[in-house]
C-alpha cells in the first residue's frame, strides 16, 4: 500500500439539521493527482473547508503524513504545506498582478522596505517555468477572468506547497488556457507535488487525474483509479441514477423568419464589423476562445456596452439599442457570463430575482400586488423545476444550477423573445446542465430564439442549429451544424 | 428554540432592545421622563429630523448618501422667512419646495450622469449651499414672527403635535413606498447590486436621481416647518442634521452598504436618538459630554449588530416576510 500524504477519516459535519458530510473518508497518495467529484451540494467544498480550517468537523480526523493535524485557518494550512485555488477569485482588483501574487507575504528588507526587484525576478522566473506570459505590473482589474485565475493559481503555486487543492480551476478558462494549465499541473506532478482536483468536467479527470473519489449527498460513494473507469459510470455514481446521455436528444423544431439582424457592429477596441442574423426558433451557438469577442456581442446586442456603430433590426424593423432598457423593451434578455455579480442579486429572494425584470406584470399602477407576485414566482419556479425551500429564500441558499435557473426564469417571466445565454452551464453539475438544455429546447419550441455562447464545444455541437465562431473580435465563420461538422473544424477557426 | 433562532430574534430586534435599556434606566432615574408631556416632547424633538431620516433611509437603501441636507435645511429656513416676509407664505412654500427638488436634481445629475461619487458631489453641494446662505444673509438670522405660522408650527391636532403628524406621515409613506411599490423594489435592487439592476433593464440613472430629489423634497418640508416653528431662518439651522439622521438610520439597522433596511428600522432608530438626547438633557449631562456619549453609543449598537450578523449561519437566512410555508422561519423583511 502506498503512503497517504493526506488522510481524512470519518469526517462528519452538520449545519443545523442538514448533514453536509456523513462519515466521509478521503485518502490521497503522495504525488498523485486526485480528483474529487460530485454534484453541487455533494459536500466537496465543505470537505475542503474542513481541511483548511474554515469549518471544524463534528467528528473525524485529518492525518498529514500520518500525523493528526488540525488547521484552524487557511494561514495555518498554508504554513502546513497545503494551498488552495478557489473557484471564487480572491484577488485585490486595485493592486497589480505582482502584488496579488505575493499578497500576504510581500518580500521586504530588514527595514520593512518592499523588495520589488527580487519579487519581480521570482515571479518572472516562475512564469517562465510554467511557460506563461504575464506582465507583473498590470492591474488585476484590467485582466480577463482567465488571466485573473492564472494569478490566483500562480499565488498558490509559488508558495512551494506540498499539496495544492484546486476547486474548479478551469471553469473560466478557454481550451487553450486549460491546455497550459494542464501542462503546469503535469510539471508540478513531476516535482512530486500532490494535487486535489475538483471539477465538473469529466473529460479533464480522464486527461490528468490518477485516482478519484466520488461524493454524493455528503457520503462516500467510491474511490477508484481513473484508468479503471468510464465516463458514463462516473456520471451514474455522481448523479445516483443512470444517465445514458449527457445531452438531451435533438428534436426538430421549426425555424422561421429572421427576428434579429445585426449589421456592421463595432465596439471600441473590440468587435470589428460583426454581421449576423438570428431566426425565430433557432439556437445560434457562438464558439471562440475566451476574449475573442463572444461576450462582447452579447453585451452589445443587449445594450449593456457602448457601441461605436452598428445597426439592429428586430422583427424586420430597424431599432436603436442604446441601453439595457431599450433591449428589454424589444423583448431581448441576457443571461450574463458572471452569474454571481451580474446575473442575479444573491441577497434578494428567489421571488424578487424573478419578478425584477417586469414588475409591471404584478402591479396595478405603481403599487405591487404581492399576492400576484407570489403566484407568478411560484409558477416560474415550478415550470423550471427550481429546487428551493421557498420562493422567499435568498438566492445564495440555492445550488449553482438552481441559481442559474432563476436567472433564466426572470427572462422567461418577462417573456423575452430573444434570449442571449452567455455560458449558461458554467460551474453547474451534470444533472442541472441536462435540465438547462431541456429548458433551452423548450424555449425554442415555444418560438423563442436563443443565442448561446459557450466554451464547451460539445455543448455547442449538441444544441446549436448554426454555429458562429469568433476570433479576436472578428466573425470567422457561421456554419450550419450538420452531421459532418467536426470539433476540429471549429477549433481551427477559433484559433485564427 | 435553537440558539441560532434566538440570536436571529435578538438581531432583528436589537434596536428595540437597545431602546428599552435607556427607557428603563431613565424611567427609574430621571423624574418626569415617563410622562405624557415628556414623551410628546421626545417626538417633537425628532419629528423634523425624522422627516429627513426617512428620505435618507430610501437613499441609503438605494446605495447613495447625501451630506448636503444639513446646509439645505438652513437655506430653506432662510428662503422661507425672507420670502414669506416680502411676498407671501404660499409663494415662500413653493420656492422652498422647488429649491429642495432642484438641489436634489443637481445632486442626482452629478451622481448618475457625471458619475461623481455621492460623498464628494454632496460635499461640494453642502459647501455651495452654506456659502450661498451666508452671502444671502450676511450670517445674520432672518426673523419673521407671524402668529398664524408660529401657531401651526407649534400647534397640536387631536393631541398630536402638527410636526409629529408630518413625521408619522413621512414614516407611513416611506414604509408603503419601500414595501409595496415598484419604485421601492427597484431602489432595493439598485442598492443591492447596481450591475444586476442595470442588466435587467432597470433605469438606474432615474432611480439614483430620484433618491436625491426625494431627499431634497423632504428636507425642504422639514425646513419650512422648522422656520414656521421658530419664526426665523438661520444658516446655522440643521448643522447636525446629516449626522443625527445617518446615526438614526444606521442605529435602526439599515445597512450602509445598500440594498437592506426599512422605514420601520429608521422609526425605531430615530426614537432611540430622541430618547437619548432627551435623557442626557434630563440627567443634566454637559453638552460636550453628550456628544461623546452619543458617539460611543452609536459604535456600541452598530458593533453589536455586526457581531450578531456574523454569528448567524447562512443557512438560517431568508428574505421575505414570515410565512407558514417557509421551512426555516424567522425571516425579516422590509
Describe the structure.
- The complex is a heterodimer of chains A (496) and B (334).
- Chain A is an alpha/beta fold and 496 residues long.
- Chain A has two domains: 4-239, Rossmann fold (3-Layer(aba) Sandwich); 258-494, P-loop containing nucleotide triphosphate hydrolases (Rossmann fold, 3-Layer(aba) Sandwich), CATH 3.40.50.300.
- Chain A is built from 17 helices and 22 strands.
- Chain A has helices spanning 44-51, 74-79, 97-101, 116-129, 145-157, 175-190, 202-208, 231-239, 294-301, 324-329, 339-343, 350-355, 370-384, 400-413, 430-445, 457-463, 487-494; strands at residues 4-15, 18-29, 33-37, 59-64, 67-68, 82-85, 163-167, 194-198, 211-216, 219-225, 258-266, 272-279, 283-288, 309-314, 317-319, 332-335, 363-364, 367-368, 418-422, 449-453, 466-471, 474-480.
- In chain A, the strands form five sheets. Chain A has a six-stranded mixed sheet with strand order 6-7-8-3-9-10, with helices on both faces.
- In chain A, helix 13 packs across helix 14.
- Chain B is mostly helical.
- Chain B has a domain at 47-266.
- Chain B has 14 helices and four strands.
- In chain B, the strands form two sheets. Chain B has a two-stranded antiparallel ribbon with strand order 1-4. Chain B has a two-stranded antiparallel sheet with strand order 2-3.
- In chain B, helix 3 packs parallel to helix 8.
- The chains are: A alpha/beta (496), B mainly alpha (334).
- The interface between A and B is large, with 42 and 39 residues.
Amino acid at each position: 500500500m502506498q503512503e497517504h500524504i493526506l488522510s481524512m477519516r470519518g469526517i462528519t459535519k452538520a449545519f443545523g439539521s442538514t448533514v453536509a458530510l456523513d462519515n466521509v473518508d478521503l485518502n490521497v497518495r503522495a504525488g498523485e493527482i486526485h480528483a474529487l467529484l460530485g454534484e453541487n451540494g455533494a459536500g466537496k467544498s465543505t470537505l475542503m473547508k474542513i481541511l483548511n480550517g474554515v469549518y471544524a468537523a463534528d467528528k473525524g480526523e485529518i492525518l498529514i503524513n500520518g500525523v493528526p493535524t488540525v488547521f484552524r485557518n487557511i494561514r495555518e494550512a498554508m504554513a502546513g504545506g497545503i494551498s488552495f485555488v478557489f473557484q471564487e477569485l480572491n484577488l485585490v482588483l486595485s493592486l497589480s498582478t505582482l502584488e496579488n501574487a505575493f499578497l500576504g507575504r510581500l518580500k521586504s528588507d530588514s527595514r520593512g522596505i518592499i523588495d520589488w526587484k527580487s519579487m519581480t525576478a521570482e515571479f518572472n522566473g516562475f512564469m517562465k517555468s510554467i511557460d506563461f506570459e504575464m506582465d507583473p505590473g498590470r492591474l488585476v482589474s484590467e485582466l480577463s477572468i482567465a488571466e485573473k485565475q492564472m494569478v490566483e493559481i500562480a499565488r498558490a503555486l509559488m508558495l512551494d506547497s506540498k499539496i495544492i487543492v484546486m476547486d474548479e480551476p478551469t471553469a473560466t478558462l478557454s481550451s487553450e488556457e486549460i491546455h497550459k494549465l494542464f501542462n503546469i499541473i503535469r510539471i508540478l506532478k513531476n516535482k512530486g507535488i500532490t494535487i486535489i482536483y475538483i471539477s465538473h468536467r469529466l473529460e479533464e479527470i480522464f486527461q490528468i487525474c490518477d485516482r478519484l473519489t466520488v461524493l454524493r449527498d455528503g457520503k462516500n460513494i467510491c474511490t477508484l483509479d481513473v484508468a479503471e473507469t468510464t465516463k458514463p459510470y462516473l456520471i451514474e455514481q455522481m448523479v445516483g441514477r443512470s444517465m445514458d446521455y449527457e445531452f438531451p436528444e435533438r428534436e426538430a423544431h421549426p425555424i422561421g423568419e429572421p427576428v434579429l439582424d445585426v449589421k456592421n457592429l463595432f465596439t471600441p477596441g473590440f468587435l470589428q464589423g460583426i454581421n449576423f442574423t438570428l431566426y425565430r426558433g433557432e439556437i445560434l451557438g457562438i464558439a471562440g476562445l475566451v476574449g475573442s469577442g463572444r461576450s462582447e456581442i452579447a453585451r452589445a446586442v443587449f445594450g449593456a456596452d457602448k457601441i461605436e456603430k452598428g445597426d439592429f433590426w428586430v422583427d424586420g424593423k430597424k431599432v436603436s439599442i442604446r441601453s439595457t432598457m431599450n433591449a428589454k423593451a424589444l423583448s431581448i434578455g441576457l443571461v450574463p457570463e458572471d452569474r454571481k455579480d451580474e446575473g442575479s442579486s444573491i441577497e434578494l429572494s428567489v421571488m424578487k430575482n424573478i419578478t425584477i425584470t417586469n414588475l409591471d406584470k404584478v402591479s396595478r399602477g405603481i403599487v405591487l400586488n404581492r399576492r400576484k407576485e407570489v403566484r407568478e414566482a411560484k409558477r416560474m419556479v415550478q415550470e423550471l423545476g427550481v429546487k428551493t425551500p421557498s420562493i422567499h429564500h435568498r438566492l445564495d441558499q440555492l445550488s449553482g444550477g438552481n441559481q442559474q435557473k432563476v436567472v433564466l426564469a426572470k427572462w422567461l417571466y418577462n417573456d423575452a423573445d430573444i434570449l442571449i445565454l452567455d455560458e449558461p452551464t458554467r460551474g453547474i453539475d451534470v444533472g442541472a446542465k441536462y435540465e438547462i438544455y431541456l429548458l433551452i429546447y423548450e424555449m425554442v419550441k415555444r418560438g423563442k430564439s436563443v443565442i448561446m455562447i459557450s466554451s464547451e464545444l460539445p455543448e455547442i455541437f449538441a444544441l446549436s442549429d448554426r454555429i458562429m465562431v469568433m476570433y479576436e473580435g472578428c466573425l470567422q465563420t457561421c456554419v450550419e451544424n450538420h452531421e459532418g461538422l467536426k470539433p476540429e473544424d471549429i477549433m481551427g477557426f477559433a484559433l485564427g | 428554540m435553537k440558539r441560532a433562532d434566538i440570536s436571529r430574534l435578538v438581531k432583528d430586534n436589537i434596536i428595540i432592545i437597545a431602546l428599552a435599556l435607556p427607557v428603563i434606566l431613565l424611567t427609574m432615574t430621571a423624574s418626569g421622563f415617563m410622562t405624557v408631556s415628556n414623551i410628546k416632547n421626545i417626538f417633537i424633538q425628532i419629528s423634523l429630523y425624522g422627516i429627513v431620516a426617512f428620505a435618507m433611509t430610501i437613499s441609503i437603501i438605494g446605495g447613495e448618501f447625501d451630506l448636503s441636507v444639513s446646509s439645505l435645511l438652513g437655506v430653506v429656513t432662510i428662503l422661507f422667512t425672507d420670502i414669506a416676509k416680502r411676498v407671501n407664505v404660499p409663494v415662500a412654500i413653493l420656492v422652498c419646495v422647488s429649491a429642495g427638488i432642484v438641489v436634489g436634481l443637481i445632486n442626482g445629475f452629478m451622481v448618475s450622469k457625471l458619475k461623481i461619487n455621492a460623498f464628494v458631489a454632496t460635499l461640494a453641494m453642502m459647501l455651495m449651499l452654506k456659502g450661498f446662505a451666508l452671502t444671502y444673509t450676511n450670517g445674520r438670522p432672518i426673523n419673521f414672527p407671524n402668529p398664524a405660522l408660529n401657531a401651526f408650527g407649534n400647534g397640536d391636532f387631536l393631541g398630536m403635535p402638527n410636526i409629529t403628524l408630518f413625521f408619522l406621515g413621512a414614516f407611513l409613506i416611506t414604509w408603503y413606498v419601500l414595501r409595496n411599490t415598484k419604485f421601492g423594489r427597484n431602489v432595493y435592487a439598485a442598492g443591492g447590486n447596481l450591475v444586476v439592476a442595470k442588466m435587467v433593464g432597470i433605469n438606474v440613472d432615474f432611480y439614483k436621481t430620484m433618491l436625491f430629489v426625494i431627499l431634497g423634497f423632504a428636507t425642504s418640508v422639514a425646513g419650512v416647518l422648522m422656520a414656521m416653528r421658530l419664526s426665523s431662518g438661520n444658516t446655522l439651522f440643521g448643522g447636525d442634521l446629516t449626522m443625527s439622521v445617518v446615526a438614526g438610520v444606521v442605529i435602526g439597522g439599515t445597512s450602509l452598504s445598500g440594498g437592506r433596511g426599512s422605514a420601520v428600522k429608521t422609526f425605531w432608530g430615530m426614537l432611540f436618538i430622541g430618547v437619548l438626547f432627551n435623557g442626557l438633557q434630563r440627567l443634566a449631562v454637559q453638552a460636550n459630554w453628550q456628544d461623546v456619549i452619543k458617539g460611543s453609543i452609536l459604535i456600541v449598537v452598530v458593533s453589536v449588530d455586526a457581531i450578531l450578523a456574523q454569528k448567524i449561519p447562512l443557512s438560517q437566512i431568508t428574505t421575505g416576510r414570515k410565512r407558514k410555508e417557509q421551512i426555516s422561519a424567522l425571516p425579516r423583511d422590509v
